């Protein structure tokens, strides 16, 4: 990590790449959106159960197969996770070896819940403190168990869309992509008209610009990033109090808790998003993303809601 005071024009040049050299063919569609009705609930999960099973249960109780999740509080015991790592083989980024924390106190985080090979699956990025109060973050593995006090989550159930995890031919990595549900599978509900868009953002797209484009194409004058989970090529963010810009080295950072409001009549420089991220050294960062300077590394899953 390097702290510097730089102008917007100096960012990225000679420091971090705008895109990673992924091994597969580049997809023509760089943003893959699906409009959907949603229902949002807050639930406390059950202690002693696998976290992924509990998220699947709450999603199913909403009458959905897929959801976007924001973590509010609680503990995990044990917590299995990894952090970003250099690529293996053709892949330009991969996962570190598994790490285990016996007792973790939740700070925040986000997740995408959907299907892999027809079974419930989740993509989880969280931030927590261990028993020594050290702040940690990373990508969680399915062995993670809900602790006591139990985890509290905000779950956005999807009624017209479904997240499915498949190997992406461009990156050769498993990624979630949203698909529209046919009429026979859509949730029958009185929740109303389309109020959200879920989307996968592909590598090399600036995440702030992508969020604005998704909202604008959906016809939302104003919108909010309700849930955002994915990876960036390193990172550029600003401390809102000091104004210092921090450059986080890559090749990839795991990002969680992307949030912020969007005005589609304004440019990227006026639409500021905040997030937390963890780098390949395990250091956790938090701040306001510098617009037009944070391209996606492998994938990003967004849930954009109309305001």
Can you walk through the features of this model?
The chain is mainly beta. 7% of the residues lie in helices and 49% in strands. It has two helices and 23 strands. The protein has helices at residues 51-61, 207-217, and strands at residues 2-4, 31-36, 38-44, 67-73, 75-76, 79-82, 84-86, 93-95, 99-101, 104-116, 119-129, 135-140, 152-158, 161-168, 173-180, 196-201, 222-232, 235-238, 245-248, 253-263, 274-278, 284-289, 296-306. The strands form four sheets. The protein has a ten-stranded antiparallel sheet. Strands 3, 4, 5, 6, 9, 10, 11, 12 and 13 form a nine-stranded antiparallel sheet that branches. A two-stranded antiparallel ribbon has the order 7-8. The two termini are 36 Å apart. The model is unreliable at 1-11 (pLDDT under 50).
Shape field: globular
Mean pLDDT: 92
Low-confidence stretches: 1-11
Give helix % range: under 10%
- The amount of beta strand, in percent, is over 45%
**Largest β-sheet summary:** 10 strands, antiparallel
Task: Give the helix tally.
Answer: 2
Q: Helix-strand pattern, N to C?
A: EEEHEEEEEEEEEEEEEHEEEEEEE
Number of E-state strands: 23
Structural class: mainly beta
* Rg measurement, Å: 18 Å
Q: Termini, distance in Å?
A: 36 Å
Strand order of the largest sheet: 1-19-18-22-21-20-17-23-16-2
């Amino acid at each position: 990590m390097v702290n510097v005071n730089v102008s917007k024009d100096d960012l990225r040049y000679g420091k971090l790449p705008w895109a990673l050299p992924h091994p597969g063919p580049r997809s023509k569609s760089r943003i893959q959106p699906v409009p959907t009705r949603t229902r949002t609930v807050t639930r406390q999960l059950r202690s002693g159960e696998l976290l992924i099973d509990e998220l699947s249960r709450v999603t199913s109780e909403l009458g959905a197969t897929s959801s976007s999740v924001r973590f509010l509080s609680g503990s995990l015991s044990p917590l299995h996770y990894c952090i970003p790592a250099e690529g293996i083989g053709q892949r330009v980024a991969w996962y570190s070896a598994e790490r285990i924390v016996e007792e973790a106190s939740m700070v925040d985080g986000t997740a995408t819940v959907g299907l892999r090979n027809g079974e419930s699956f989740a993509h989880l990025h969280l931030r927590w403190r261990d028993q020594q109060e050290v702040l940690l973050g990373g990508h969680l593995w399915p062995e993670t168990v809900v602790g006591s006090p139990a985890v509290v989550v905000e779950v956005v159930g999807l009624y017209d869309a479904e997240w499915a995890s498949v190997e992406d031919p461009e990156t050769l990595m498993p990624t979630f992509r949203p698909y529209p549900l046919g009429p026979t599978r859509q949730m029958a509900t009185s929740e109303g008209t389309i109020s959200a868009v879920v989307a996968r953002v592909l590598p090399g797209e600036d995440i702030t610009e992508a969020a604005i484009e998704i909202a604008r194409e959906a016809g939302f004058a104003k919108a909010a990033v309700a849930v955002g989970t994915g990876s960036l090529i390193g990172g550029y963010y600003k401390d809102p109090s000091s104004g210092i810009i921090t450059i986080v080295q890559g090749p990839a950072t795991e990002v969680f808790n992307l949030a912020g409001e969007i005005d589609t009549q304004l440019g990227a420089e006026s639409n500021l998003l905040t997030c937390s991220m963890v780098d390949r050294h395990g250091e956790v960062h938090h701040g306001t993303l510098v617009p037009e300077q944070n391209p996606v590394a492998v994938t990003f899953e967004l849930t954009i809601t109309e305001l």
